[in-house]
Amino acid sequence: MIVERTQPWLGTYVSIRVEGLDAVEANSAITAAFEHTAIVHRLMSFHEADSDVTRLNREGTLRAVTVHPSTFAVLQWAQRFASLSHGCFDISVGAELVEWGLLPSPCGSVTSPSGSWRDIELLPKGQVLFHRPLWIDLGGIAKGYAVDKAIECLLERGAEHCVVNAGGDIRVQGNRTELIRLQVESPGTAAVVELTNGSVASSCGWQRKRCIGGKLRGPHLDGADRTTSWTDRFVCVVADHCVVADALTKVVMAQGAQSANLLRQFGATAHVFDPGGGWMHLPAREDAG
Amino acid sequence: MKSTFFLLPLAAIAIQGGAAYAATYLSVEQAQALMFPGASFQPDFKTLSEAQVKAIQHASGVDVRNREVKAWRVSTGGWFLVDEVVGKHEYIPFALALDDKGRVRSVEILEYREAYGGQIREPAWRAQFQGKDSGTRLQLGRNIRNISGATLSCKHITDGVQRLLVTYEIALKQNDR
What we know:
CATH class of the domain at 177-287 in chain A: Alpha Beta
CATH topology of the domain at 177-287 in chain A: T-fold
Radius of gyration of chain B: 22 Å
Organism (chain A): Acidipila rosea
Keywords (chain A): FAD, Flavoprotein, Lipoprotein, Magnesium, Metal-binding, Transferase
Largest sheet of chain A: 8 strands, antiparallel
Number of helices of chain A: 7
Largest interface: A-B, 58 and 47 residues
Distance between the termini of chain A: 40 Å
EC number (chain A): 2.7.1.180
Strand content of chain A: 25-35%
Helix content of chain B: 10-25%
Structural class of chain B: alpha+beta
Order of helices and strands of chain B: EEEHEEHEEEEEEEEH
Order of helices and strands of chain A: EEHHEHHEEHEEEEEEEEEEHHEE
Strand content of chain B: 35-45%
Shape of chain A: globular
CATH superfamily of the domain at 177-287 in chain A: ApbE-like domains
GO molecular function (chain A): metal ion binding; transferase activity
Oligomer: heterodimer
Protein name (chain A): FAD:protein FMN transferase
Structural class of chain A: alpha+beta
């Protein structure tokens, strides 16, 4: 029996499909998985006044702030990606996104941010301290993490095959392959990924790009130099975990072919479309190992 | 993990039901049973007056397109409402569960259409692709049920829920007393 449901979370539509359970078991598993999604939504929202992210942005320089284990886990992932990408992936880009009108000003923060991911210290017992004022935004990683948590929950409850799709960040787990269409304007053709037991995340800059101060700005920043990544590029990353796929789309968006080594470290692949330049696949076949 | 990337000519994909692939998730009765397990439901549909419509629009900042309010009183306390919002492509029907204090318990999308899905229809099509498994073929008749690309915003639903919360305050709440 196939059961599929959709709820609005994380600023988008989250769909969960379960196969191999009876209707009651499937619905109970889906409800439990959505509860995990709701927790991530509440903890990691940039907008909500009492989220962990807002508390950190408000108080992180004043004292060590204790956060939920899930928030801590996402911060650990984020710091790992920041370190491995030499700061290209950086959750402290909230200030730029606010300045460019892509995020609202955070609640209750009076200090203007000036630091980077290096100013975030993860302490024992789930505590986090900022060494400089920061506005962190987990929008580039939390959806992928939420998808992984939902999948874990469904597998624990005995789903044979399940798919979680949070606004295009998708993980497929089970005995069947899924076809995933990449929503990219590639003339005359449709790009499709056939996926078994893995995750896909995609990013494209052109939908939300805007002109600010005479410069074209989009939602994807290169954290290392705080410039907008290539706004017309489409990036799809395929990886085991959705949190990896989600985060690495931002690095591939900014670095293109230079991200091949990082992709390789995670056993990930990327499909990149540049208008005018066509498709590029990373790591390239000859160095895929 | 196993993945293969394909480029298909658009002609190889049949789009079902017009421009979009639609998935129906829950009937109204199924949504009721999921959102308020074990409860019974008393329909209490309302037609909003002109003054109520204006008050709701003013308080919620959202247009009221339909003056009919599909509301059910729940035996265990609270309300169950069905409404729809205009999405990017289609109407999106959804169900809203409110607790006995008018707070959101849960939201379920009842039917959802996402553009650019479809079905592989070209027979024995050897797909063009760049990958390791050069002999791979996509099977005929397989549905493309997942889309990855620009993230769709659920702001329409957020606005719709906000409108229904105000509708509850203005048109339903007094019935609870």
